Amino acid sequence: MPIPSEPIASTSSSSVLPVAVLGGGLAGLTAAYRLKAQGVPVVGYEATSRLGGLIQTEQWEDSVYEHGPDGFLLRKGSVSSLCQELGVVLQELNPLPERIYLAGNRGIFPLPQGMGLLLPTRWGPFWTSPLLSLTGKFRLWAERFVPARQAASDETLANFVTRRFGKEALTSLAEPLLGGVWNTDPQQLSMEAAFPHYVQLEKSSGSVLRGIRRGGRSGEGGGLASPVLGSEELVRKLVQNTPGVWQTGQRAVSLTRTSGGWQVNFGPSQPPVLVRAVILAVPPQVASRLVAEAFPEAARLLKSESHGIGTVSLTLNTKDFVRPLDAWGTLFSRTSDIAVDGQQWSSVKWNHRTGAHRTVVRAFFGGFRHPDFLQADDETVLAETLRSFSPWLRSGAQPLHVSFRRWQQAFPQVTVGHTQRIASTEKLLGTQIVLAGQGYRGVGMPAVVESAERAVRLISAES
Questions:
Q1: Distance of CA 141 to CAs 126, 137, 206, Å?
Q2: 223 and 238 in contact (C-beta within 8 Å)?
Q3: 319 by DSSP, 3-state: which?
Q4: What average pLDDT does the structure give for the chain?
């Protein structure tokens, strides 16, 4: 469902230069909406032919496919508040057990009840689960006796988990559960940027488990919600409420400082645009190119590697399942022989995803565990996806419909030192060039919306 852009409004009638928003994903759309609501002149430019970025909802007959994010944490109220403002109707998760399956070389087992991302809040189900060996369980339990790290420097997720909970906790729990959230190899993922609450629990209590027992959070808990009509409904509402702001197919190539603000350059075929400030709602590697002329050191700090991800959505006959789909989905660890990264059982997780006697699922592929698989042809990906469902799906069952998406270079890699690099970059850029979006201060819809609203506050403070 492509979202059309509207013609840009002329700013010639105003003596006030507009704010430019570069990038028409969720961050850029939210920033433009907030600025326009404040009466600030704003112009938006998106390089591709559609608005919405990674948010893309597709409908086939009575099936709804999400090719990007399908929901968000209600505990982080930025998205739910935005939806309420815009009249986007939300639904919460179906009343099923809040669990997922983990698959590795020990088999496929449900995550024990009471697990908060990585650590148990209920020890009974943990001790009886076959997910870890007895040695692995004792090593995780013994984390409370591991001395706290004294160094203040950042470290990788792999180093943190291995040091505190053991190697088995890394391979069987942290890699699929935590690395998958950021689509970043745990051997590279910054603990300080990705999971600072675990770092703080170690510092404040000397042990993560002790910190949780004293009242600290064990993970990103809280209810999930999703727009009833699909995540792209939020995009549609944001576009409808910013008439005349957005132009698609307009790729900015650089920024030049002027006496009155900034010049956004688009190349020889389009004249530059003068603005007073710029919100860069683009990935770090794009932001790096745009600021290279004016801020070479910031450009260097913003350079980063990015990984892609693919999704394949399927509509299947419910009668073809030989076991009930009794969870949100399955994650596959590096020790599994399955090349897809995970499954999401969409119509089990949410209402309004398909009609009676049908089931909608999707699989993720080509992430950090198997990056080359992103380039595999559709037939190969489909065959591997169906193989990943073999414990639940009748042999020989075929989908009624399939839809693929491949998001190339969509996930910036949040590596060690990320938080400090972003802080240094923002100090160099000042408050006329502001960063927003995924890859700076978090992942997921709430973090993206929060980054956009923060950018607007910084820009508005300069007015």
A1: 10, 6, 14
A2: no
A3: helix
A4: 92
For the chain, the straight-line distance linking the first and the last C-alpha, in angstroms and rounded, comes to: 37
Tell how strand 254-258 and strand 261-265 pair up: antiparallel
Amino acid identity at 418: H
Full set of structural domains in the chain with CATH: 19-54+230-304+414-461 (3.50.50.60), 90-95+306-412 (3.90.660.20), 118-215 (1.10.3110.10)
Q: Is the pLDDT of residue 343 over 60?
A: yes
| Exposed / middle / buried, residue 125 (Cβ in 10 Å: 0-12, 13-18, 19+) | middle
Q: Is 392 helix (H, G, I), strand (E, B) or coil?
A: coil
Largest CA distance in the chain: 73
Amino acid at 64: V
CA–CA separation, 158 and 433 (whole Å): 34
Give the distance from CA 429 to its chain's centroid.
25
Neighbour count for residue 420 (Cβ, 10 Å): 15
Q: Is the pLDDT of residue 232 over 70?
A: yes
Picking from 130, 211, 183, the residue whose alpha carbon sits closest to that of residue 369 is 183
pLDDT digits (tens, 9 = 90+) for 35-71: 999 999 999 999 999 999 999 999 999 999 999 999 9
pLDDT at position 10 is 36
Helix count (H) and strand count (E) of the chain?
Answer: 17, 22
Cβ burial, residue 141 (10 Å; 0-12/13-18/19+): middle
> Between the CA of residue 68 and those of 224, 309, 321, 362, what are the distances in Å?
15, 10, 25, 11
Structure letter (DSSP) for residue 93:
P
Please give the single-letter amino acid code of residue 194: A
